[in-house]
Design goal:
The complex is a heterotrimer.
Chain A: E1 3-12, E2 20-30, E3 35-39, H1 46-52, E4 61-66, E5 69-70, H2 75-84, E6 85-88, H3 101-111, H4 116-129, H5 134-137, H6 147-159, E7 165-169, H7 177-194, E8 197-202, H8 205-209, E9 214-219, E10 222-227, H9 229-233, H10 236-241, H11 248-258, H12 270-282
Parallel strand pairs in A: 3-8, 3-9, 6-7, 7-8
Antiparallel strand pairs in A: 1-2, 1-4, 4-5, 9-10
Helix pairs in contact in A: 3-4, 3-6, 4-6, 6-7
Chain B: H1 16-19, H2 22-36, H3 42-59, H4 63-72, H5 74-87, E1 92-96, E2 99-102, H6 103-129, H7 132-145, H8 150-183, H9 193-199, H10 201-224, H11 243-267
Helix pairs in contact in B: 2-6, 2-7, 2-11, 3-6, 3-11, 4-6, 5-6, 7-8, 8-10
Chain C: E1 3-16, E2 19-32, E3 36-40, H1 47-54, E4 62-67, E5 70-71, H2 78-84, E6 85-88, H3 101-111, H4 116-129, H5 145-157, E7 163-167, H6 175-191, E8 195-200, E9 211-216, E10 219-224, H7 226-230, H8 233-238, H9 245-255, H10 267-274
Helix pairs in contact in C: 3-4, 3-5, 4-5, 5-6
The chains are: A alpha/beta, B mainly alpha, C alpha/beta.
Chain lengths: 288, 273, 276
């Protein structure tokens, strides 16, 4: 499985007074199972970018390769691309339309013209993946459950296509802490146990810091950083310039180091910081 | 990107016609439609055409846009012309099979066609020069003057306003839902009519559900902001007549008088036809 | 201190599939004039139902809600109540009525039958307060989420309320939109002395509230100052609420025996505690 974007640019309303360059010369290459976060402000081009990854939008210039097939050339390739690269939109529960949860999740597999047995298998698998019990929920109306559950149904609707890559655009937007935690846990499990590449679009650093292995930072339609979290957070000033922040823990560790404490200032996770500070305490490095 | 589409056919520009009060334009259009039916000879049509030409000239709207509206009803015009040519009795000029073409038929047909075209252009000047928002305002004010309509004027205008407010929002939503279903392998492009009709269900159902939710929340927000119908409501921007409106009303009156007068030219035995 | 809102033995029951459910169960508390009171709870804790009860959109099954001494059950007073205690909802799109920003801000005062000149003045002032004056001729759909919410706030301000209720007003915004709206709310509370009742499920938004009430299953589970509330990390987690990471870290270290005070909220405080 591989996904490559080469010199991708996208201009909205070209040759009109409203012309607007949403993406400028984007180059991304994904060739192994990774957990990637795309971070940026509203309007930085994140949503436009991910819609190029499965051919929903076509670049004004540049090419998109999925498994070495250029999907910008013909429709059949794009149709196949959407099976390989699943995209879950923001507020995905707004796309639900069927009478039962089963039927809604089966929409994708049906479009792939699979057999009934295969469809049933995929739906039940997808539901288990997002933490919804198949027997309990399959015949219920998708409009009769909580907001967090609705969103999980919508995610299952994409998972049932069995994509190699799943892109989630702001999957936790508007949910309460419990709903958030449940969704993020399911996504992480997906990556850990099912070998699926996850691309998480977010503007919440705290949220992605704990999970992502690679962070792509976007600004005004371009990529300004593409690196491991520790490296991205070490350039906190650069993040602040574009109105983003490193996680609080990262700031704390840096402050502590500045105050002369012997700690690793590259740490940015809660558990990492806890361990590091305990070690220091046991060595007698904290006198409180 | 549906964000900047124009709703209706409003053509933004700077012109004395754009600056007129919407009420003036509504009244003018209304009067214009009526007096067009008073015109029954070349003089009458010539006068109406003259005023229309003046209006188009003043409005600063490219002719291309003005004639766009005619294109939409070209079929209706053709049918009217054909019917008039063949069914009007009179001196027979020539025959095509069983169909007779008369002199009166030709003249009638020409008049009808011209009348329809002028009617359409006249009304579309109003919609081209008035934004939907001020058109709504104007309609509300005009309706209040009509006995029996007063009670509905505010409600209708409020419905129009809310519709205008939510059209861009809903279009964006429709676009998003369509993409989301495409991402799940939906195909909206190929297949026959039946298949295509079926394929819009996954777009329409979520759109409707979303709209009802919006309506519900909006109603609550409006109530929370003390909305209780049109009774006792004041307005931030009351419509006020300017100098140009007075001129426009005088012009309307002159036009009306001239066209009605043109009918009597015949009675005075001045040969015009 | 004068009471802006009094909630007395408030109950709210509703029907769903022929089953009677209780959303609010015997709740009592007061909102004092000029304070910033935060109400926090997970989805289903009854916080949104509470917001609608406070402003008379729905009526109590039993008990009373008094807004500046006016009972929400009193139909004659309902418009006065809504003028005194305005409410800003969650979805920025679904509370803007008019097609032009300034006309939307005018919507409230227009409904109250305020004189034209006075409406103009109020609209201009309200837009100034939320720093949106230069957008007054825009169409709502051209604005960002944060800007739309500020317009919604201006629309309430133009009714000249004494108290504003925010019902998860930042839940659908991105971080910068949330910052815009929050700083606007703080400004109203500090400068205009507007009483703020802020309902949310984000703990990190309310670290500088005057007082916090934590709801669970339609009842008050905790109340106190942010310090008092945030120091109870485990009970909060049991209520499905999420404390900021710094607070969590302080709590974890304290459990290991490091002497850190309760309820540390910010990076600076934490640094101060460790580097003494």
């Amino acid at each position: 499985m591989s996904l490559k974007l080469l010199h991708v640019s996208h201009i909205y309303a070209k040759d009109t007074p409203f012309e607007f360059a949403a993406l400028k010369d984007i180059n991304i290459s994904i060739d192994k199972t990774e957990f990637i976060a795309i971070i940026g402000h509203t309007g930085s081009g994140k949503s436009t970018l991910v819609q190029h990854m499965n051919g929903l939008l076509l670049p004004t210039s540049g090419t998109v390769f999925i498994d070495d097939v250029d999907i910008t050339q013909n429709k059949t390739d794009r149709f196949n691309a959407r099976r390989k690269v699943g995209l879950v939109f923001q507020y995905a529960e707004h796309q639900l339309f069927e009478e039962t949860i089963f039927k809604d999740i089966a929409f994708g597999p049906k479009n792939l013209k699979l057999t009934n047995e295969e469809i049933e298998m995929r739906v039940s698998e997808a539901m288990e993946l997002v933490g919804l019990n198949y027997e309990e929920y399959k015949d219920r109306s998708p409009f009769d459950i909580s907001g967090g559950q609705m969103r999980r149904v919508a995610i299952a609707g994409v998972l049932s296509m069995k994509p190699d890559i799943i892109i989630l655009d702001e999957p936790t937007a508007g949910l309460d802490p419990l709903g958030k935690k449940e969704i993020l846990n399911s996504i992480y499990q997906l990556y850990k146990t099912h070998n699926i590449t996850v691309i998480l679009v977010s503007h919440n650093m705290e949220e992605v810091a704990q999970m992502a292995e690679r962070i792509i930072v976007m600004r005004q339609g371009g990529i300004i950083m593409d690196a491991a979290p520790a490296k991205v957070f070490s350039q906190a000033e650069k993040l602040e310039e574009i109105g983003l922040r490193a996680p609080d823990i990262s700031y704390l560790m840096k402050e502590l180091k500045k105050h002369g404490l012997d700690v690793d200032d590259k740490i940015f996770t809660l558990y990492g910081a806890n361990e590091e500070l305990l070690k220091l305490y046991k060595r007698g490095g904290i006198n409180v | 990107m549906f964000k900047d589409i124009t709703i209706g056919q409003y053509y933004p520009a700077n012109s004395p016609i754009h600056d007129l009060d919407p009420r003036t334009k509504i009244v003018y259009t209304f009067v214009y439609i009526i007096v067009l039916f008073f015109a029954n000879n070349i003089a009458g049509y010539a006068i109406a055409l003259l005023f229309l030409a003046l209006l188009i000239y003043l409005s600063n709207i490219p002719l291309k846009f003005v004639f766009k509206s005619v294109k939409a009803i070209i079929i209706i015009i053709l049918i009217t012309v054909i019917l008039n040519v063949f069914v009007t009795p009179g001196y027979i000029l020539f025959k095509i099979g069983p169909l007779k073409v008369t002199d009166a038929g030709l003249i009638n047909a020409a008049f009808m066609a011209v009348r329809l075209i002028m009617l359409i252009i006249g009304t579309s000047i109003m919609t081209l020069t008035t934004s939907p928002i001020s058109l709504t305002d104007g309609m509300e004010y005009c309706m209040r003057r009509i006995p029996g309509m007063r009670a509905y004027a505010h409600e209708l205008a409020m419905m129009m306003t809310i519709a205008l407010r939510f059209i861009p929002t809903l279009m964006e939503e429709a676009d998003k839902i369509m993409k989301a279903q495409k991402a799940r392998g939906a195909d909206f492009e190929t297949g026959g009519i039946f298949k295509k009709a079926k394929s819009v269900v996954p777009i329409l159902v979520p759109l409707f559900i979303g709209s009802f939710k919006r309506a519900d929340e909006l109603a609550m927000a409006m109530e929370a902001r003390c909305y209780r119908g049109g009774e006792g409501r004041t307005r931030l921007n009351e419509l006020t007549y300017q100098k140009g409106d007075t001129v426009a009303y005088i012009v309307t009156a002159v036009m009306t008088a001239m066209i009605i007068a043109s009918r009597f030219l015949l009675l005075l035995n001045i040969p015009m036809k | 201190m004068q009471k802006a809102i009094q909630v007395k033995n408030l109950c709210y029951k509703y029907q769903k599939d022929e089953e009677e459910l209780t959303a609010i169960y015997d709740m009592s508390f007061d909102v004092y004039e000029g304070e910033f009171l935060a109400i926090i709870g997970h989805n289903g804790s009854g916080k949104s139902t509470l917001a609608k009860l406070l402003n008379g959109i729905i009526k109590p099954s039993s008990g009373d809600v008094l807004v500046y001494e006016m009972n929400t059950k009193d139909e004659d007073k309902i418009w006065d109540i809504r003028q005194k205690a305005g409410i800003v909802f969650q979805n920025p799109d679904n509370q803007i009525v008019a097609t032009i920003v300034e006309e939307d801000v005018a919507f409230g005062p227009e409904n109250l039958g305020v004189e034209q000149k006075e409406i103009r003045k109020r609209v201009d002032e309200a837009l100034e307060t939320v720093k949106m004056s230069q957008y007054k001729d825009r169409k709502p759909h051209q604005l960002s989420g944060g800007q739309k919410q500020r317009i919604a706030i201006a629309g309430i301000l133009a009714m000249q309320p004494k108290c504003i209720i925010f019902d998860e007003a930042t839940a659908m915004l991105d971080p910068s939109g949330r910052d815009e709206v929050l700083s606007c709310i703080r400004h109203l509370n500090k400068e205009n002395k507007t009483t703020i009742l802020y309902i949310t499920h984000y703990m990190e938004e309310i670290v500088d509230a005057d007082r916090i009430i934590v709801l669970n299953k339609g009842e008050i589970a905790m109340q106190g100052t942010p310090k008092e509330i945030f120091s109870q990390v485990e009970p909060l987690q049991q209520l499905q609420l999420d404390v900021p990471n710094i607070t969590k870290l302080a709590y974890m270290l304290k459990k290991e025996g490091i002497n850190i005070p309760d309820g540390v909220l910010t990076v600076d405080e934490m640094v101060g505690c460790i580097c003494r």
